[in-house]
Amino acid sequence: MSAVDQNEIVGAQHEVQRLLGRCILRLQQCEQLMKSMLAFQKLLGTPETLPMALHKRKAEISGKTMGVLVGHLTAECVVKEGSEAPGGPSGYDSNSSFVALHMGLEFPEQSHATLKSDLRDLVNLRNVLVHHFIEQYDIQTVEGCLEAQVALSRSYAQIDRQFQRLRALAADVARGAKAFAELVQSPQFHEFMVNGIAPDGQIHWPLTGIVSALRQAFRERAIDGWVNLDAAVRWVAEHHPEQTPKKYGCARWRHLIHESRQFELRHFAHHGQLGAWFRERPNSPG
């Protein structure tokens, strides 16, 4: 083979490598878009664990293959119109503070089927390019390289179409995530999650900050299973001064304990100390 022929083959091979690399990079960008959507699609946690939920979710999906990502994306994130909303997570106390966020985009049934089919084709194309492309074309010849270049240009066009579609979907998910972030940072969300006061003013007593403070006071000051109300009030005032009966529409502590229905209150002498004593109800979530 002449030097001219060899240079021609090398140049053709370099072009194949460039086009193949371009396809692989675009495929990786598609994977990153799917991972970003799935990371924000589902967040679960308590007020204490929610800040780490996104990090945990990203770690869960970081090692998923493209095929697995497509399966999750089309089953959980981009769903058919009328799909049943996911239920709450299992294994937690329904009276405890827990946030379960599920974000999804609804597509008409035919559009969803088309998306699912196109993304499966993308996975198949990715597998061919990564694992079998070199078997299909003889890149030791100029003719084989030219055939490979045509195929790679066609493949890139297919990959880029799906990339542009995924980028548009990711932008929609990002807008939803931004709206949720704004909600979490709002005073109304804080009032509900920390103090158990819903935006409409309804009080969910088991979740209220003042009930939590009283439980802590009980654990710190209880004597033989009962705690003196005055002692508990002093403890709450010292450690949680923002938690007052007035915040929850009650005039006095006894009124609040009665309204919350989380504690049993009695008036008697205990260990030589006469006064009001309370304890948690046996069926009260603590």
UniProtKB/TrEMBL annotation:
Residues 208-270 form the HTH OST-type domain. It comes from the Bacteria. It holds the Pfam family OST-HTH. InterPro entries: LOTUS-like, OST-HTH/LOTUS_dom. This is OST-HTH/LOTUS domain-containing protein. It comes from Stenotrophomonas riyadhensis. The lineage of its organism: Bacteria, Pseudomonadati, Pseudomonadota, Gammaproteobacteria, Lysobacterales.
